[in-house]
Please model this.
Amino acid sequence: MKLSILSILLLATLHCAPALADDYKTLEWLDLMPKSDLDALMNPPEALKQIQDGTPEDEMDIQSLSDLNIPADDPYQKALVSTKIIAKYNKMKVRIPGFVVPLEFDDDQVISAFFLVPYFGACIHQPAPPPNQMIYVTTSKGLKTEVLYEPFWIEGTIFTESKSMEIGLSAYSMSADKISPYTE
Model:
């Protein structure tokens, strides 16, 4: 009896093994950022700590940071434009939620390439997220949506390849296999 149960479990495991290889690892946005960049962003320069949320100063773009006399080599400044990546994710099948910033689309408004970003309005409002918090996504199936303020789950293969476009720079690229509305 023990042998037949063990045999069934072994066969079930072998039968399921190919399906497990197709699983996607769910990532959070901070998984894509090296710890040194995260530490720098969590500890902004003193001049920024003095700015109150919601004030006009809180809406400054990256160029305005120079007005605060924050040196260009400050860790915070460097983290804002960092292209440092997490190499272990290269060529990994992943699943990550985010918002779509269309880059390429056809006459029917079917999107074939976009930046995936962690929050709504990124790239439209300045500053854009750090490059290691943006993913350049291509999809052969296309994405047709009327609402860009809704998040999506993107499943596909991620690459540690940067992509520069007029509105931003991403430190990661991704070939999407599946795009679906975000649900928790």
